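A quick aside before the break. I want you to see a complete sequence-to-structure record at least once, exactly as it would be stored in a machine-readable document. Don't worry about memorizing anything.
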Amino acid sequence: MKSFLREFLITLALAVVIFIVAQRTIQTYEVFMTSMEPNFHEGQRVVVNKAAYFFGEPERGDVIIFAPPPAISSDEDFIKRVIGLPGDTVEVKNQAVYVNGVKLTEPYVAAAPSYTMARIEVPKDKYFVLGDNRNFSNDSHNGWYADRDDVRGKAWISTWPPDEWGIIKDYPLDEQLSGVGNQL
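That is the input. The structure line, written in tokens, reads:
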């Protein structure tokens, strides 16, 4: 009986530890708008890796989940792609996005942006984020940024619907910014 009780308590303790670690490092998120189409659709569910930025910072191209800025009255977290890091310059012109003067090649967007945005510098501790559905997204081109303290984590795995299941594809933009031939 002592052996059974000891194994039961050990199993219970391990289950509690696993539960606490899972709660602190992952969460689920449901996409509630169309701003990230064609890659994320309304009603799609993703697992968010909250531990991704414990020891590092978001990178250009990461899809992040974050609390919207206070100026936007929304109780729902947003999902957007990081385009500019603190200190970067970002500009939208000629149906393209430019970061630090380099025109980005973006195979993940629904359509090229039909708007322009004057060159801005991303403030400290902020991220310039855009939806993949550029022309139908409330994002940083409207004058706001994702605050570092409000980033919940990185979109990691799509879990619903079943035909969308899998690891979320990364599009690292840093390779483009090391810059061969795209500068204007």
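Two observations worth writing down. Helices lie at 2-25, 174-177. DSSP finds two helices and twelve strands in the chain. We'll return to this after the break.
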